Amino acid sequence: MKGFKPTLLAVALAFSSMESMAAADLVLLNGKLYTADPSKPSAQAMAVADGKVLKVGSDAEIKALADASTKIIDLAGKRLLPGLVDTHSHAIFGGLEMTSANMEDEVVEPAELEKRLRTWRDDGSARHGDVLNIAGMSSAYWSRAEEFRRIFNNGEWTKVPVVFSGSDHHTGWANQAMLDRAGIDAKLVASLPEAERGPLGIDKDGKPNGFAVDAGWDRIAASMPSASAEEMLRAGEAAVKYNNSQGITAWMDPAANAAPGEAVFALKPTEKTVGVLPVYKALADKGELNAHVAALLVANPKSRPADLDTLDKVRKQFQGISNLSLPGIKVFADGVLEYPAQSAALIDPYNNSQKKGELLIDPAHFGELVSAADARGWLVHIHAIGDRAVRESLNGIEQARRDRQSGVTHSITHLQLVNPKEFARFKPLNVIASMQLLWASGDDYTLDLVKPYVSAFAFRYQYPAHSLLQQGATIAGASDWPVSSPNPWQAIYQAVTREGPKGVLNADERIDRETMLQAYTLNAARTIGLEQQIGSLAPGKQADFIILDRDVLSVDDKDLAETRVLKTYFGGREVFDAAL
User: Fold this and answer.
1) For 219-234, b where at least 16 C-beta lie within 10 A, e where not — what string?
2) Pairing between β-strand 79-82 and β-strand 32-34 as defined by DSSP bridges
3) Domains and CATH numbers, the chain
4) 3-state secondary structure of 24
5) CB neighbours of 242 closer than 8 A, spacing ≥ 6?
6) Are 445 and 413 in contact (CB under 8 A)?
7) Partners of 569 in the β-ladder
8) Mean of the pLDDT values across residues 158-171?
9) Does 349 sit behind a cis peptide bond, omega within 30 degrees of 0 on the bond before it?
10) Could you say which DSSP state residue 202 is in?
């Protein structure tokens, strides 16, 4: 009898477990599941109940959880993945640009550009109030400021404010009518401290030539008409739908307290600086926020710990909103690398100017800010493109780790140039590398606007994904939309091949597709602080998943970029169907 009681108990527990699992709302059978769960990475079928994963397993195991009311889907051998997570996406800005004039990085002759401006002026897509704006401009244009001045400061454009916004969202060019509106003239330039003149393109006679980067660009953007609340809501709706169509069911918005036209690079936030947060709230109130959004608040690079109190007041205004979390802050450590902007902070100087770019953070005090945020349980997400900016960002996080082992995961994003001395620092400091590997291409940017201007040693370690991975770093997927496409499959293809129109960008830094799938699932969920809720198909997690048109684990590399999402589910509910 002593051996009989445990047996009865085990039977009772098993029966109880089966009873609790007998209410699947949705069952998906006969598929190829990539779960992103290390304890059970693959499966054939999945059961969903109350918007959460009930169980993954074999067809037989999952069929047993269906009853007469269960919806059953035959996957017919198709690949099913967790919903993808983008760890750096300015989604509302992306939604705005979807309906606006956009060059999408295409480079044409100025005469053709003028022709397109006329077309977009006439159809209204370039109109923002009385300002004409074309977004998505390649940095290759900025060396042609003189041609722009000759065309767009004369004739029909003389009194019309014209702005060309860089695809990097750090640079741009404005004609004289727009410079006049923004109050940018020789007198202003002369009155500025040297550090504030740098972000403005200036001729030898001291007059601005229309080019601007970072804080200089803020001056122009701030003088452009603001989008209306209705336009912002439409942008939000478009952004959610477009992300869902790409298989994206979560993202980190790294500048949620900044709205279009507001300063970002030199932001001095107040408790009224709420940016696009009201858009996310409005979407949630309408039941249309079909994605998890981890909204970060930009802190001024020179912020001190006490300044976090102001950001906390903003956070408290947006608590308790469905699918919206506010897990921390974002800080700009530097600018961008491409010529002629060259505002990214480097260890060795640029070859042409012998300058080292602009480090926006103060190394003497940045660690105090990171540690103060860490003490609050906030994650810190740092924009760092140049190798010096990466080093100083790691130094700041290192101070927080010395002060306490909080377990909060911090991240550095972009990581265009990383000195090899930093590779081994990521893992022990628990810093995730949030990388836009779509940019790891031999193209006009990397080969024409970067390579001639930086040291050969630094260029060798451009987007060093494999080197970081070898040293134990965790890589998370990111797009920086609308700087570039949010399509994860193009980024995964690029990470695997590193091939571009002008060649391969350091083949040694290629990484495999399985690493990239983890980068866009569980690793990314951890980056945005939601790994307990999403990121893998594990029992109890939200049932966010996608069904694909091909098996991304077995197709040729060249076919990865063409992957299409057939269906996207958020919380067990279908939110995208490619057939509709």
Assistant:
1) bbbebbeebeeebbbb
2) parallel
3) 4-77 (2.30.40.10), 93-221 (3.10.310), 229-545+549-560 (3.20.20.140)
4) coil
5) 94, 95, 98, 486
6) no
7) 545, 574
8) 95
9) no
10) E
Structure tokens at 228: 């209306």
Q: How far apart are CA 350 and CA 445, in angstroms?
A: 16
Dist CA 52 CA 334 (whole Å): 41
Q: d(Cα 580, Cα 577) in Å, to the nearest integer?
A: 6
Q: Are 108 and 84 in contact (CB under 8 A)?
A: no
C-alpha distances (whole Å) from 526 to each of 327, 402, 404, 476, 529 are 12, 22, 20, 9, 5
CA nearest neighbour of 245 among 441, 500, 487, 524: 487
Beta-bridge mates of residue 462: 417
* Helix or strand (DSSP H, E) at 560: helix 557-560
In this structure, the number of other CB atoms found within 10 A of the CB of residue 431 comes to 24
Q: Name which of 219, 185, 223, 232 is nearest 205 in CA terms.
A: 185
Scan for tokens 């949630």, then name that residue. Answer: 284
Q: Are 492 and 498 in contact (CB under 8 A)?
A: no
Enumerate the β-bridge partners of residue 163: 133, 174
Per-residue pLDDT of 11-58, as tens digits, reads 444 444 444 555 899 999 999 999 999 999 999 999 999 999 999 999
Tell me the per-residue pLDDT of 253-308, one tens digit each, with 9 for 90 and over.
999 999 887 778 878 899 999 999 999 999 999 999 999 999 999 999 999 999 99
* SS3 at position 294: strand
Half-sphere exposure of 91 (CA within 13 A, CB side): 37
- pLDDT at residue 188, as a whole number: 92
Q: What are phi and psi of 218, to 5 degrees?
A: -55, -40
